[in-house]
Every structure is written in C-alpha cells, then in structure tokens.
Amino acid sequence: MPELPEVETIRRVLADKISGRRIVRISVCLHRAAASRLSRTLRSQGAALRKNVHGRRIMGIRRRAKYLLVDLDEGVLLFHLGMTGQLFAARGGQVHDRLPSLPDKHTHLILYLSGGLQLYFRDIRKFGRVCLLARGQERRVFQGLGPEPFSKAFTPAVLQQGLKGKKASVKSLLLGQKIVAGLGNIYADEALYRAGIAPQTPGGRVWPEKITVLHTAVRAVLRQAIRFRGTSLSDYYDPESRQGQFQDRLRVYGRQGDPCRQCGTSVLKAVVAGRGTHWCPACQRQHGGKAG
DNA sequence: CTCGGCCTGCTC
DNA sequence: GAGCAGGCCGAG
User: Does residue A64 lie within 7 Å of nucleic acid chain B, judged by its CB?
Assistant: First the structure.
C-alpha cells in the first residue's frame, strides 16, 4: 500500500506521538502463521524482539525509501509495510468507523508505551516486515537502494545514467528502487504523466531533454503527495487513523476510461512491468513524450 | 530484466 | 469463481 509519501506521513505523525516514550511491554501475535515473510520473521525473531525491545526508550523515527526506522536507546526497530501494513498509535478500541476495533486478527505486534499509548502494527496481507537491527546493520539492509528523491544525490545526471542504454520500460526502472528509491505503482504512473512520457518507453529511449523534466516530476509529485498526507484508495490510514487527500489529485492512476484533465482523451490502462499502468496516450508519447 | 509467489479481502 | 490490489524477493 504505502509508497514514500504515505510512509513519510506516518513518520511525521509518529515522531510527535511516540518519541521519548518507553516501551513498557511488547506483544507479538502469531495467528495462523503460514510461509509469509512476516510470519517467518515474527516466529524466528519473536523471542529476540520481546527480550530486546522491552524497556527501551524511543529516541526518534526516520525513513529510508519506504522503510521506517524507530531508533531505540539500544538498537533500531525496522518496519516495512508491504501492501497493507498499518501503524496505529492509539489507546485501543475503535480508532475509526471504517476500521475494526484494535487489536484485531490482523494485528501482529503491539508495543505498549509509557503514558498509556499503544503502537499497533497491522497487516492484512502479511507482506510487511518488522525486525530489530543492531546499529550498523542498516547499511546491509539498504544496500542496492537508490538515492532518496529529495537528496542531493538524486540528480538529473544520476537519472540519465540509470536510464541510459536500458531496454526495460522507464516504468519498470522507476519501480526498481535502484535509480531512485520510494516510488511505487501510483507515483510512478503520476510522475510519468506529469513528465509526458509513456510508461512503456524503453529507458534508453527517453529523450535527453525529458530527463530533467522527469527528475522534476518525480520530486514534484512526491512533494505534493506528502503535502496532502498521501493517497487513501482503500486501506491507507496514518497512525492517527486519518486518511490522505492525494487520491483527489491523481491525474491517471485509477482513472482509466475517464478523460485526461489536460486534453480529454480517455486514460488507458494496461499491464506494464507486471503492474496495472495508467497513462494518457495523447499527452504521454513513447520515445520521449509530447513536444512542449 | 520478467515472472511467480507470498497473503487476504473485495469487486466483477 | 476469477481476477485484482499501493511491494518485495527469489528464481529463471
């Protein structure tokens, strides 16, 4: 579910709510654990989590790509939310009329914090991850991840280098997290729309003058989505059970059959890079996009 | 690189 | 009942 803007929103909300609190109790919930990554990690690491997280103080919370890092006075709790992961900072019970009372059968981890607050990790599809890292292990986890989109390391030259000579579609390259980290299926489509580049364009065929446009578009769409607290299409809620507002501002994602807001042409949807992909065939052209 | 697998729930 | 969903990983 969550891409960079949603994870960043979660980080900002959590920072104010949980920083400085102590973890006074931890509860790992293994329901029907199958072969999912989440079940396996909780099974193998559950005891270590209980032992090493109990009594720790939360010093702060960071984000890298779509990962959340909760800094403890000893160690780092790493979360990845997969497709349906959610974090709620609440005092239990009903947090939203469209959500079940917490904890429910999809709640896999509860951190009881000082001051009577709880942090619930919920994940219906169990594609998420939680683990405890010793300081210094981050490097290994994040190796292979490209630069943060808002960092100085992400430049048009870096983007150009990443696309150069590639036969794979520009969309698959943006989803790959290697050229730049944090884009997922929604924001890859939205960035390509804003840049006027068809998603199936081979990376190496994106016109050089379009590279800067795409670089700007990636940053702009992510920045705007953060400002609107993310996209809530079905089950994204922030830790205060608030939905995002960016779904009202999507130009192509989920708008197949609807008119393009720029030119009125029907927005198309097809599978590109193995994912449902949305674009305007008039505003987004292959081999670089529309003129102007 | 692309594909299938990992999960559950929702829509057609 | 089939197909689809905001992500990643391992296999090919």
Answer: no
